[in-house]
Write a structure and sequence with these properties.
The protein has 15 helices and 8 strands. The chain has about 475 residues and is α+β, with helices and mostly antiparallel strands. It has 2 domains: about 270 residues; about 190 residues, Nucleotide cyclase, GGDEF domain (Alpha-Beta Plaits, 2-Layer Sandwich), CATH 3.30.70.
């Protein structure tokens, strides 16, 4: 990967050392077609990624895809401003032939001054603006702030609006672009350095994630961001129409293909993880918190929840009504699992199994599992209050928690597998759930789980030890008071 990262700079230095090879290639029409093709490709793929990321609420993928979407927008204006490509051109310049406002003449095409032009400013913005999105999408601290304060749809609107506003301004008063210092020395070098730092910072963050988890997605983004940083240098320092100047277009195409292809693969992987984990937990995993699939011994907390009275309800209502009611209740249980960073192992008819502490946790998942159980109690009470107000039958639930050692891993075949927990602790938790009905309680937890719960936060009420099938010794149990 290191060789791929430094190859563009090496080629650029070689071209500077060989002026005979870094010749002029004045191909306006070809430039217009090539840049338009790159823009269409980038905006098309980015649109698909953005749409999926919005549905899945994946902020990191969304920001990076929005960066490429803004790149495509500014690059489209760069294509439209190609001097000499067509007669109705939006661009304007301060240099070149006085007979041609675009700076392009058949007699002296190389006299075009790239600085202070619409095509030059657009080329620069097509790299500097996305750098902001890439840096934000690669920083976990920034992602957390944006997730709390800015909606994903608002970020999408901003990313789309920026190139549109710029295009409208360019179409209205393209001559003003010539007076902006955006693509003129010395400011252009300062901005080049700033955007280069942002791109390299984004690459560094992705490299750290790659070193921690070795996900190909992070490696692909490292390569894409480093390539774009070098493209930024080429667009500013390479003479107009030279081979080196054309090279930055090649680098942008390469980055688009590499990064957006990786984003598609990443979304598919995250979609699979979100079958079991909350979005926040998925973000932690992809940020470098490892989740081994091959199998690992771990002390975790198992949660089994089950509805009471759903069988009797099925005898009174139509099947469609029963399914709707059960989905509402079980959906509330699942929401509480995700809200407390639990892993939804599987649905069990009118109940579910969840695992807490999949990622390292000082309480082995006991504390978030207890919070989830209390949240389930409040959620079910609210649902029952609403149903009783409508003169509809209400359902109760029972939930059991047990902390013990299990083996975590993927079970199944290559075509279909589930990430689950196996061990005696799973059987103990499942059988404790049956004690809820026997004891007349909605929450039952084993003594091992209770030992991890601080009494300053949880009102643990110790109960008499109970006998459960498969265990010779009685199991100490407790419950949680409001």
């Amino acid at each position: 990967m290191l060789a791929l990262c430094v190859a563009p700079s090496a080629v650029w230095i070689w071209l500077l050392a060989r002026p005979d090879l870094n010749s002029q290639l004045v191909l306006p029409s070809e430039h217009f077609l090539v840049v338009t093709l790159i823009s269409v490709l980038a905006v098309g793929i980015a649109f698909l990624v953005v749409r999926t990321a919005l549905v899945m609420e994946q902020y990191q993928v969304l920001l990076i895809a929005l960066g490429f979407m803004s790149m495509a927008g500014f690059f489209t204006i760069h294509a439209l401003a190609t001097p000499g490509a067509h007669t109705t051109n939006m661009s304007n310049a301060t240099a070149g032939s006085s007979a041609d406002p675009y700076g392009y003449t058949a007699a002296a095409p190389v006299s075009f001054d790239y600085n202070g032009t619409l095509i030059g400013a657009s080329a620069f913005l097509s790299l500097s603006t996305p750098a902001i999105f890439f840096a934000a999408g690669s920083s976990q601290a920034v992602l957390e702030i944006l997730r709390r304060r800015v909606s994903s749809r608002m970020m999408t609107v901003v990313a789309v609006a920026l190139p549109l506003i710029y295009a409208g301004f360019a179409a209205w008063r393209s001559d003003l672009i010539a007076y902006l210092p955006l693509s003129q020395p010395p400011l252009v070098y300062v901005l080049m350095l700033a955007s280069g730092v942002l791109l390299m910072l984004a690459a560094w963050q992705q490299a750290r994630a790659y070193a921690a988890a070795h996900f190909p997605f992070n490696g692909a983004l490292v390569l894409a961001f480093v390539v774009l940083a070098q493209a930024q240098v080429l667009v500013v320092l390479s003479p107009f129409w030279t081979v080196a100047w054309w090279g930055y277009h090649v680098l942008m195409l390469a980055s688009v293909v590499i990064a957006l292809g990786a984003l598609f693969v990443e979304l598919d992987r995250r979609r699979g993880l979100e079958r079991f984990l909350s979005r926040e937990l998925v973000e932690r995993i992809v940020a470098g918190d490892l989740l081994r699939i091959a199998g690992e011994r771990r002390t975790v907390t198992l949660l089994f929840a089950d509805l009471r009275g759903s069988t009797a309800l099925a005898e009174q209502l139509a099947p469609e009504q029963v399914i709707a009611i059960v989905n509402a209740y079980v959906g509330e249980l699942a929401r509480c699992v995700f809200a407390n960073d639990g892993m939804l192992d599987k649905f069990l008819g009118d109940g579910l199994m969840a695992i807490f502490g999949v990622l390292p946790d000082a309480s082995c998942g006991a504390q978030p599992a207890a919070r989830a159980a209390l949240a389930m109690r409040q959620g079910i009470r609210q649902l029952n209050t609403e149903r009783r107000a409508q003169a509809q039958a209400a359902l109760d639930f029972g939930v059991a928690l047990h902390t013990g050692e299990v083996v975590l891993g993927a079970v199944g075949i290559a075509q279909r597998s589930d990430f689950t927990a196996i061990g005696d602790a799973v059987n103990t938790a499942a059988r404790l759930e049956g004690q809820c009905k026997e004891l007349g309680l909605d929450i039952v937890l084993s003594g091992s789980t209770a030992s991890y719960l601080p009494r300053s936060e949880f009102r643990v009420v110790d109960l008499t030890a109970v006998s459960i099938r498969g265990r010779q010794q009685r199991v100490p149990v407790a419950t949680l008071a409001d």
